[in-house]
Structure to design on (520 residues):
């Protein structure tokens, strides 16, 4: 790990000003940042510790019924908050399918959004990586691409965003509240992360010094609470990143879908909102055929970025199964194995 | 705001207050415990959040000490494996690991036990072995003592609940 200056911010304004210097980085729980620094993947010369900032660790119910979740709320505290989890159960399920209990106890909401890709070539300073070093090339091309993208990638970078949390959030129109030099602004989570294009080093819309202060979930999205699920395919039952994941939320009226939401994880450099599929679902009668059509629509533009064409078919089947689970209804209690395909649940469909 | 030239971190570790001067902010909680305080019970398996051998409680919550920057935890209360037993009386989780053969080589065991103590406090798993296994997934055991570990956690949890009831009665 390189040497760095340690700055403990006491106010948001202090944090923003201390982190605006080139080479500075925010430190939250450190579960991603310290890992990257130990591997020499990132080398910030100043860490601005935000964990002592007051008031950013609160989960607030707003007067309009929506939620404002402070940037420092720990992943486990949000997942186990009874009112939040009741309103947005697929978000709680996604959170509990990520990492381990220890990591979730530490990891913050903002840190989860800002976590970096798990591309093994990004993690290996000896490999060429456009994200680490713009213009260096991308060693993942032609390499091991099991965790790489099938949507929205470019020849410059084929990495994926590893968060589970973000997938359920983007399906439910979450927004990010950001503090900067000129006060605060709000950006939809869908517009927050950037696709790689020809500049994969630019990962989000944050400008230097900008600090995530909260996450907002609209009241309207709680209307999906009775039919919201998250599913995640991983290489072992627990404590592994998604190969492919899906979040599905439905609003039903007598077997007909009034409105459907679908998002995918592990497929692109951002949590992938599948709006084409939502058009197919809107107003339609529930059926396996419908779910297959929705899955096809979601994956029209999918193409392998290497030796990973299997992910397209895997995503197709996972979408059908997640929609079926959502249609069957949110379970009264969080499943013993959150988001798992191996859980002994009464799935209506084994796609 | 302080651009700290001399860094001091104040922690309560197993009930004892410590003010520790750090010459460098890079020290993780794990390295601080092992190398500055001589508490070598917490193990360094991967040093990257992937194995759970370094699990300790920070303010009562289990976390990976290898991915925690010590200076950032200023003011916290830390509990390590060394802080569980009361003199010669083992903590119920420690006793249950012995009774149920919850280990072979023992390298992962301090982390397993601290994780189990955290799990029982969290109280989400109940008496369902599947939920216990899921909630213990952040602790790997290369010896594969998982069956004994799950039994030990369930048994310790039941004992601690009945002890509490006994006290209340
Ligand atoms: C072994 C392992 C397994 C994991 N498995 C999963 C998994 O299955 N699913 C999953 O989703 N995640 C997984 N994770 C990742 C984990 O979710 C992240 O490490 C965690 O969410 C990061 O949060 P943090 O508070 O520790 O952030 P930090 O590590 O402190 O920071 C992460 C990044 O966010 C920036 N940042 C932090 N706070 C702010 C802020 N307020 N505003 C702007 N920028 C900020 C930092 O500068 C840094 O770049 C895993 C991690 C490990 C180590
Ligand atoms: S896929 Fe992206 S992150 Fe991975 S090596 Fe290529 S440029 Fe780097
Ligand atoms: S040593 Fe901390 S998780 Fe492995
Ligand atoms: S007892 Fe040997 S690693 Fe668990």
């Amino acid at each position: 790990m390189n040497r760095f200056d340690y700055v403990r911010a006491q106010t948001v304004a202090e944090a923003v000003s201390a982190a605006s210097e080139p080479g500075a980085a925010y430190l939250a729980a450190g579960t991603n940042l310290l890992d990257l620094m130990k591997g020499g993947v990132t080398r910030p010369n100043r860490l601005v510790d935000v964990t002592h900032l007051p008031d950013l660790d609160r989960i607030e119910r707003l007067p309009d019924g929506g939620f404002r979740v402070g940037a420092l709320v720990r992943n486990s505290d949000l997942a186990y908050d009874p009112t939040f989890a009741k309103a947005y159960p697929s978000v709680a399920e996604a959170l509990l399918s990520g990492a381990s209990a220890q990591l979730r106890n530490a990891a913050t909401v903002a840190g989860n959004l800002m976590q970096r890709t798990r591309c093994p070539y990004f993690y290996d300073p000896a490999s060429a990586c456009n994200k680490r070093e713009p213009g260096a090339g991308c060693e993942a091309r032609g390499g091991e691409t099991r965790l790489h993208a099938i949507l929205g990638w470019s020849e410059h970078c084929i990495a994926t965003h590893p968060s589970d949390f973000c997938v359920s959030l983007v399906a439910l129109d979450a927004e990010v509240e950001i503090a900067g030099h000129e006060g605060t602004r709000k950006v939809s989570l869908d517009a927050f992360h950037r696709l790689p294009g020809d500049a994969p080093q630019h990962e989000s819309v944050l400008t230097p010094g900008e600090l995530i202060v909260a996450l907002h979930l609209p009241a309207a999205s709680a209307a999906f609470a009775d039919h919201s699920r998250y599913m995640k395919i991983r290489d072992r039952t627990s404590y592994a990143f998604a190969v492919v994941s899906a979040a599905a939320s439905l609003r039903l009226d007598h077997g007909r879908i009034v409105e459907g939401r679908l998002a995918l994880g592990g497929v692109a450099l951002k949590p992938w909102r599948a709006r084409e599929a939502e058009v197919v679902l809107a107003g339609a009668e529930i059926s396996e055929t419908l779910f297959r059509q929705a899955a096809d629509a979601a994956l029209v533009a999918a193409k392998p970025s290497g030796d990973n064409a299997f992910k397209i078919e895997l995503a197709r089947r996972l979408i059908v199964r997640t929609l079926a689970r959502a249609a069957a209804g949110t379970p009264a209690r969080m499943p013993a194995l959150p988001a798992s395909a191996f859980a002994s649940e009464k799935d209506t469909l084994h796609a | 705001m302080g651009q700290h030239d001399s860094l001091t971190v104040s922690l309560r570790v197993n009930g004892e207050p410590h003010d520790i001067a750090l010459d460098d902010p890079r020290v993780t909680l794990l390295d601080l415990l092992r190398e500055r305080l001589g508490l070598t019970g917490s193990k360094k398996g991967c040093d990257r959040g992937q194995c759970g051998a370094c699990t300790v409680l920070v303010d009562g919550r289990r976390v990976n000490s290898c991915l925690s920057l010590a200076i950032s935890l200023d003011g916290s209360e830390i509990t390590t494996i060394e802080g569980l037993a009361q003199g010669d009386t083992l903590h119920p989780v420690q006793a249950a690991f012995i009774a149920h053969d919850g280990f072979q080589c023992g390298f992962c065991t301090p982390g397993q036990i601290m994780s189990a103590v955290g799990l029982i406090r969290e109280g989400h798993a109940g008496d369902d072995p599947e939920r216990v296994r899921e909630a213990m997934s952040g602790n790997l055991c290369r010896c594969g003592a998982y069956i004994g570990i799950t039994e030990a956690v369930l048994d310790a949890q039941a004992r601690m609940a009945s002890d509490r009831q006994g006290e209340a009665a």
In short: The mean pLDDT of chain A is 97.
